[in-house]
Amino acid sequence: MSNTGLDAETFDAFLDTLKRFVRERLVPAEPRAFEEDFVPDDILAEMREMGLFGLTVPAEYGGPGLSVDQYLEVILEIAWAAPAFRSAMAISTGIITTALTLDATEEQKREYFPKLLNGAISCFCLTEPDSGSDSAGLKTRAVKDGDYYVLNGTKRYITNGPKGEFYLVMARTSAENLPGNRHVSGFLIPAGTPGLSVGKHDKKMGQRGAITGDVILEDVRIPASGLLGGVEGTGFKTAMKALDGGRLSVAATAIGYSRRILASALKYATERKAFGEPISGFQLVQAMLADSRIEIYAAECMLRDAAKAAARGERVSTNAACVKVFASEMATKIADRCVQIYGGAGYMAEYEAERFYRDTRVYRIYEGTTQILQVVIAKSMVKEFAAAV
Ligand SMILES: Cc1cc2nc3c(=O)[nH]c(=O)nc-3n(C[C@H](O)[C@H](O)[C@H](O)COP(=O)(O)OP(=O)(O)OC[C@H]3O[C@@H](n4cnc5c(N)ncnc54)[C@H](O)[C@@H]3O)c2cc1C
Fold this sequence. Notes:
The protein is α+β, with helices and mostly antiparallel strands. Helix content is 52%, strand content 14%.
């Protein structure tokens, strides 16, 4: 993304409004989001009204054009609330807008940016039943038929899948694997296209209200104008570039939620008494609180450093991987400490510590598992070393 962003004063005012919205509207709506397993309609309408789905649409297409660093500050704030809310909008503002901005044709930008500005829920469809980390091993086929493509395949664990208004689907346009993964192409497909169907909401460990599901393509026939960028073989590159931003966004989410979790642990520690005094007075409890604060601060510094570089237009794949690994591993540690500080209550579903523990676990898995990102980081270190000798 090369957006220059809002001026500082306008952005700060927006962030203040957003912070209030998160605390006064989203947090109180959490029980309803869990109950309905999605963002309740009235809250979704308010999020759309605030323009949250189009935040990163470039100014030349009528959007506010937030810069990467501004956008990540927004995610840090939204992530204070349960993951359901961020999940509904952040595919649109993140991976989808980045892919469109970088690689869509002018016609595709004119078609899809207005949809995002109107609050469209969108989906990024890469993972399949037999390919996740090995994403280029996908089987979904797109076969050219005159001025059309015909797609067949199944996409798995797709965020917002059951509620998507349009889908960016990665499919192979060559039966053979090609160098540079040029067998993968991207396709923009509106919901309601004949042959495209969606599965039920997956039953997950946590993150209730942030939905995933299958997206099934059976002889889905779309005009060739739906091929992202109008060129075959560029889909994988687009996906990887978009995922750099996606990883920063997951890191920001993990940090924002960790702030909430630590606030909860701190409040409980000051209220709960043992041996006649608040447990926050015990040094071993203090160590858990302090370690959490130290790690959140470190993660914020890493995130903001990578975000500034990305906003300058630098490619930040390695540092995005570093901060995603650090922040996601951190969030699960902080959630674990929160359970510990709550004691027995931390294990009871009646208290929020239990759901924090379940909600944070996935940050270490999606948009690149910790292991895959360790490989990415180490490979780039070896490459840099080889180039320097
Ligand atoms: C809640 C949720 C939302 C999601 N949303 C989306 C979405 O919107 N769109 C989408 O396309 N996908 C989505 N996914 C899929 C997600 O990106 C994948 O689950 C993830 O990339 C891991 O792939 P996998 O599940 O196939 O695991 P696998 O690739 O089977 O990995 C299994 C284990 O093997 C390890 N492993 C694999 N290869 C290597 C290697 N080379 N070296 C070392 N270790 C390795 C992994 O780290 C992991 O521990 C979502 C998943 C979840 C859980």
